[in-house]
């Protein structure tokens, strides 16, 4: 190489290096001026973040304490992942609803995928498949026409629950479990006698909940190499049921769908009331782009999510019973209002809802005090109130705290349905929990109207026909059930003692007559 060439190479290298340094400096400077702090929160420690301060069983109590220290939105770290906790309805609306394009994703989880749940709507990332599922759910579960067509299913299952309660009131826990499963099975797929499907669904859900609520699962999901952990190690860490879940899930999803399709086709001209039937009709009539697979998976998500004792509907009904056993004055007042409006010669139905505001108020108060939610994943960097929220942050709407917000509720820890009754014209009633109990924005619960109607109709029917009281122990003393909330992010309630007895001979006759009428 000649000296001239050597010097040109050297000059070029110096210029390139200078340009690189300038570029990096500029980049760095830019970041310095633009970068904002994370929202305030408890100080994390290396590796663990704030995990050591976070009770696995009841995290929301700690969220409340941190909320009092850091405000209605704060950030903690679960291992290395920033986690944004939203404690107020106002912030939840601003972020989850108004900035829905960023706040509507979910995390993928290797364990969820191993068990086959990654296809379910509730676990899908924000994207086209999820959008198609949600469109289907709106057509087959959300709109007025669909809701009207699903009413016979609700009526049939509610009367079925009342019949079972009248025959064997002590087994109320298993009747409620059967009811929530049968209601959603009927609504998703239509009438079916296949008890196996319900049993399999319970097994699948049991494995899912047992696996994902263990500390091992939480740790595993945060490890970047979790997807390389061989299946035999996973089955050793959890149990053999883990690996059997996927084939069982596929079997339930396929066979329930095929069965529903066959029955829909055979129903020829009769009103075919089920999500699968309504969605299939929409697909044919409007040359919908939704595939059979979308209908199959959306139906399965509805079914599997609500057919278990941890479902949001089961939590609502169990909370209702505990509150009624411990608030007999409320129960008696509700019975009087039903007697006045409906009388004793028929069962209440949804057409009575507007005339029975006190029953509505009881449901609202039950909603206010329960706790539900599914975390979201922030899809892009965001800025809020002068703070930086990085892409990939886990976002938790702390619905438990929203229902106990003293800015909205007087004596928030007291169960008092009257807070929702307008005492005199012009006075303020307190905020309707349906504003937040079904969550916010694009991922708001698609079953909210169906779920809310079903809950109201069920509790009104129980109040009309049964007395619900404290059970007696072996010494004849009354047992006061407590709302013992089991570990997890939702308030799954531990089994509790309760005495359920028919209100009268006439109530029993009414239930029997309704059951015969519906056969
Ligand atoms: C009282 C009854 C119910 C309550 C309180 C409730 C509440 C909720 C909440 C809080 C979420 C989380 C939304 C989020 O990501 O932030 C949710 C999601 C969901 N709910 Fe419900 N729900 C109820 C009944 C139902 C019913 C009856 C169905 C279906 C038949 C249903 C289907 C779903 C589905 C599919 C999702 C996931 C939505 C998605 O990820 O896009 N829910 N629900």
From TrEMBL:
Pfam families: p450. PANTHER family: CYTOCHROME P450 MONOOXYGENASE ALNH-RELATED, P450, PUTATIVE (EUROFUNG)-RELATED-RELATED. Keywords: Heme, Iron, Membrane, Metal-binding, Monooxygenase, Oxidoreductase, Transmembrane, Transmembrane helix. It is found in: Membrane. It comes from Rhodofomes roseus. Gene3D superfamilies: Cytochrome P450. The lineage of its organism: Eukaryota, Fungi, Dikarya, Basidiomycota, Agaricomycotina. Its cofactor is heme. CDD domains: CYP64-like. Pathway: Secondary metabolite biosynthesis. The chain crosses the membrane at residues 6-26. SUPFAM superfamilies: Cytochrome P450. This is Cytochrome P450 monooxygenase. InterPro entries: Cyt_P450, Cyt_P450_CS, Cyt_P450_E_grp-I, Cyt_P450_sf, Cytochrome_P450_fung. Belongs to the cytochrome P450 family. GO terms for molecular function: monooxygenase activity.
């Amino acid at each position: 190489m000649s000296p001239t060439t050597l010097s040109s190479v050297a000059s070029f290298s110096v210029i390139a290096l200078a340009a690189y340094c300038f570029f990096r400096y500029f980049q760095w400077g830019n970041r310095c001026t633009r970068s904002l702090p994370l929202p305030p929160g408890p100080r994390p420690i290396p590796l663990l973040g704030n995990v050591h301060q976070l009770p696995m069983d009841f995290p929301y109590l700690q969220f409340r304490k941190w909320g009092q220290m850091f405000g209605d939105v704060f950030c903690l770290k679960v291992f290395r992942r920033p986690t944004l906790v939203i404690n107020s309805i106002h912030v939840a609306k601003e972020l989850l609803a108004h900035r829905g394009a960023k706040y509507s994703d979910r995390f993928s989880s290797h364990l969820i995928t191993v068990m086959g749940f990654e296809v379910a709507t509730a676990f899908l990332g924000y994207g086209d498949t999820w959008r198609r599922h949600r469109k289907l759910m709106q057509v087959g579960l959300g709109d007025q026409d669909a809701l009207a067509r699903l009413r016979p299913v609700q009526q049939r299952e509610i009367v079925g629950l009342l019949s079972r309660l009248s025959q064997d009131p002590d087994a109320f826990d298993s009747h409620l479990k059967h009811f929530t499963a049968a209601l959603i099975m009927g609504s998703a797929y239509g009438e079916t006698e296949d008890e196996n499907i319900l049993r399999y669904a319970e097994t699948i859900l049991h494995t899912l909940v047992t696996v994902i609520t263990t500390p091992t699962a939480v740790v595993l999901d945060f490890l970047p190499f979790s997807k390389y952990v061989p299946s035999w190690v996973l089955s050793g860490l959890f149990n053999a049921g883990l690996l059997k879940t996927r084939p069982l899930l596929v079997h339930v999803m396929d066979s329930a769908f095929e069965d529903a399709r066959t029955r829909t086709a055979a129903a020829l001209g009769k009103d075919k009331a089920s999500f699968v039937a309504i969605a299939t009709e929409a697909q044919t009539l409007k040359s919908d782009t939704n595939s059979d697979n979308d209908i199959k998976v959306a139906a399965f998500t509805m079914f599997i999510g609500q057919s278990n004792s941890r479902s949001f509907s089961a939590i609502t009904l169990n909370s209702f019973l505990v509150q009624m056993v411990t608030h007999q004055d409320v129960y008696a007042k509700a019975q009087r209002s039903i007697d006045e409006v409906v009388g004793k010669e028929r069962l209440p139905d949804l057409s009575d809802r507007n005339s029975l505001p006190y029953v509505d108020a009881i449901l609202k108060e039950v909603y206010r005090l329960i706790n539900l939610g599914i975390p979201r994943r922030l899809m892009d960097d965001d800025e809020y109130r002068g703070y930086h929220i990085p892409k990939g942050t886990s976002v938790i709407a702390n619905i438990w705290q929203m229902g106990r917000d003293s800015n909205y509720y007087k004596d928030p820890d007291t169960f008092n349905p009257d807070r929702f009754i307008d005492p005199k014209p012009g006075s303020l009633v307190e905020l309707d929990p349906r504003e937040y109990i079904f969550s916010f924005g694009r991922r708001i619960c698609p079953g909210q109207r169906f779920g809310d109607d079903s809950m109201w109709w069920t509790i009104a029917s129980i109040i009309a026909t049964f007395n619900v009281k404290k059970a007696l122990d072996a010494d004849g003393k009354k047992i006061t059930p407590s709302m013992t909330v089991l570990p997890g992010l939702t308030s799954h309630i531990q089994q509790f003692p309760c005495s359920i007895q028919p209100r009268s001979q006439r109530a029993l006759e009414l239930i029997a007559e309704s059951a015969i009428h519906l056969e």
